[in-house]
Design a protein that fits this description.
18% strand; alpha+beta; DNA-binding; Dna Ligase, domain 1; flat; Arc Repressor Mutant, subunit A
């Protein structure tokens, strides 16, 4: 392995745009859209084409480095670094703030699902509503 490839996922060429996308995701405390990632790269003084950011994200998803979350509230995909943690989200319909939920309520249903001889391959849970700031504003 070349020296510059150490610490980089095997089988993936290390490029400056890929490093930039990965750096933004490593520093993020919530899932980000491709446009948010692009904006962060620009803020850091780096340059990359928007289309390049999208291609990098799709590659990272394919390689398992990044998780793609399809938010049903606005048909937008969000991305986060795959830290191999099971997460669910509450999404504000007004400001689109995303809150991570610590517990998985779906686990309560698993015994019944297994009793029905259903093999679960995965699940997503998004709860939509209004955050504290937005619920106090007249809608």
């Amino acid at each position: 392995m070349k020296e510059e490839q150490k610490g980089w996922p095997s089988g993936m060429k290390k490029t400056k745009p890929r490093e930039s996308v990965l750096s933004v995701l490593e520093q993020a405390d919530k899932p980000l859209s491709a446009m948010e990632i692009y904006s962060e790269i620009e803020k850091d003084g780096e340059s990359a084409w928007r289309s390049t950011v999208y291609r990098i994200l799709e590659l990272f998803v394919k390689k398992g480095l990044v998780v793609k979350i399809a938010m049903m509230s606005n048909d937008m995909a969000l991305y986060e670094l795959n830290r191999f943690q099971h997460k669910h989200y509450a999404v504000c319909l007004c400001c689109h703030k995303i809150l991570s939920m610590d517990n998985c309520p779906v686990e309560k249903f698993m015994p019944k699902i297994k009793d029905d001889d259903f093999r679960v391959m995965g699940h997503n849970l998004e709860i939509y509503g209004y955050c504290g700031e937005c619920s106090s504003v007249s809608i």
